[in-house]
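Problem: given the chain below (433 residues), write out its structure.
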Amino acid sequence: MKNNVFRTAAAAALCLVAAATTAKDFSTTIDLAPAQPLARVPKKFPGFGYVCDPKVGGEETVLEYRHSGAWVLKTKVCDDKTLEFLTRNRISILLVLDGSREKINTDLRRIADGKYGSAIAGFQLGDRPDGDGDAEKWRAVVSSIRRQFKDTPIAIPAADAKPPMAKMLADRMRDVSKLVYDFSKVPAPYKQLKEITKTITFGGNKDLKRMRLWVIAPDRMPGSDESTRSDFKTISWKIHWMMSAYAVEAVDAVLFNQPMQPDEFGYTLRYLGLAFRDHGTVLTHGESASADAAKSKTSSPDLEQDFDDLTGGFGGEDNMKIVASPKACANLADGKTGDVEYLALANDSDRLCLVMVNTSGKRTKYSVETKGKKTGNCTIRRMYLDPETKKVKREAFGGYGQPGLPYTSYVEPDAVETVTLILTDKKHNQAGY
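Solution.
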């Protein structure tokens, strides 16, 4: 069976149509300096987190955060004891501002006076997309935030492409940079998020066009109960969910709607945390079976393509470059077989990190080439389902790569892993990963 070949180009993950579609083997070329990466995530908000209230305690509590991969929590809790604990242990919150205008202003002054600003990854203006209709209150709150917290992101809750608060805030929207969407009941986010971003892109609101999205994700698969949160199939699906959200090219963070726990899912997010915190640029996204993208189209691309839309091409030819919709998340939710899906992350100079999940049921060979630098040795961190014991296991080990040649390896079935590769200009390996 022929390998699929799909390549990532400067503006997005562009797929080259191949002769066959398979989840078995694939290769990809990654541009290390794309004109527009999928996302840039700060260490204060490293790509993902939880929707839950923070705990306060001693060393054991701090370890619980670390082992849960809990670097960011979305919460309304902001008392002094909690804020002091979070600041001291470098844990951040997306703080949902709640209550009267006076209460919110009091909370903001207390956070500023206590020098707790480093614990705030962002401020969200309430939970209701309509802002309770109180435009005067929220305009004053935005003004107060910006005076006291110059660089902290401000977000508004939204349900569609036309959030009422955007109209309420009027010229104060210049201080807002994020939209928060609760998709915790959505089995696969890509299609709905893509429709939202497309509507915004071709709408007339310039403030909305520059927005980035923070998305609330489910804690379990559709129709499942709470006890399945940390089943490996659920873990893998949630990682697919996160990746398919990033594929929209407008998402900066995914927050899982569940409490933090140092269980298998927590350890998975811990591994991903190491990846995102040290590699803050999300370069591209891909799936091994998405190379034959043209066949997924139901009508002529010529009729669908917009001139201002950089995600596709014209001509309708067999080798037309287009972006394929991720399928694995929706397939798993429907009880079908998944795929190998990945995100490629990078730091500013010398590391490339692949975040991968394999639900295809097959051991899959992959090959990675890079544009800009060569890949060398690597470190692999893996969570996988042991085929004999059916228990989730963890392992970390080094791998060899020869600079100048594509990095080639295998991703095991039923596995979530990160592969951190040295990047070098030299023709030989250096000390390090």
